[in-house]
Amino acid sequence: AFAGKEDVKMSDCLFCKIVSGDVPSKKVYEDEYVYAFEDINPVAPVHILFIPKEHISGVSEITPANSEVISKIFEAIAKVTAEKGLDKNGFRVVSNCGADAGQTVFHLHFHVIGGTKLNWP
Ligand code: 5GP
Ligand code: ZN
Questions:
Q1: Number of Cβ within a 10 Å radius of residue 84
Q2: Is 109 a catalytic residue?
Q3: Ligand 2 centre and the CA of 67: distance in Å?
Q4: The one catalytic residue among 55, 107, 109, 111
Q5: Do 5 and 11 touch, CB atoms closer than 8 A?
Q6: Strands (DSSP E) along the chain, which ranges?
Q7: Residue 2 pLDDT level (bands cut at 50, 70, 90)
């Protein structure tokens, strides 16, 4: 079968390399579809990145064909935040998409930040 660009491992993608282990990371959670790890430059006491193992470049590239992993990601976010007790005081989920949002890594990721009272831009 034809492998579209979203199906193959992107050899030049930093987060694909983190999924494969070629670039080390501090793993927080992993299942068949999802990988989560600590952000290298945390902006809050808790700052975890949740990503699909499959390469999707950003929110604007989510389609009916690849969106099943999005529910898996949010199930993982709910599980991990509950385990860390973040569900009590709350937390924020953010995905920057494109230039105006300041996206710097073009492999879909959801920032989970918390552990303190957060300001809103
Ligand atoms: P964006 O700016 O695209 O929304 O988020 C990219 C995030 O990836 C940033 O918060 C940045 O600190 C994080 N990041 C960039 N390179 C690495 C890395 O090599 N390892 C880890 N753990 N996080 C990274
Ligand atoms: Zn990737």
A1: 16
A2: yes
A3: 15
A4: 109
A5: no
A6: 27-30, 34-38, 46-52, 91-94, 110-114
A7: very low
**pLDDT tens digits for range 33-90:** 999 999 999 999 999 999 999 999 999 999 999 999 999 999 999 999 999 999 999 9
Residue that the structure tokens 């991990």 belong to = 80
Closest to 105 measured CA to CA, from 28, 42, 13, 11: 13
Tell me which residue has tokens 């860390």. Answer: 84
Q: Is residue 1's pLDDT more than 50?
A: no
Structure tokens at 116: 């303190």
Task: With CA atoms as reference, report the closest residue to 80 among 113, 118, 121.
Answer: 113
Mutation probe of ligand 1 site: the residue of 29, 100, 103, 105 with most atoms within 8 A of C-beta? 105
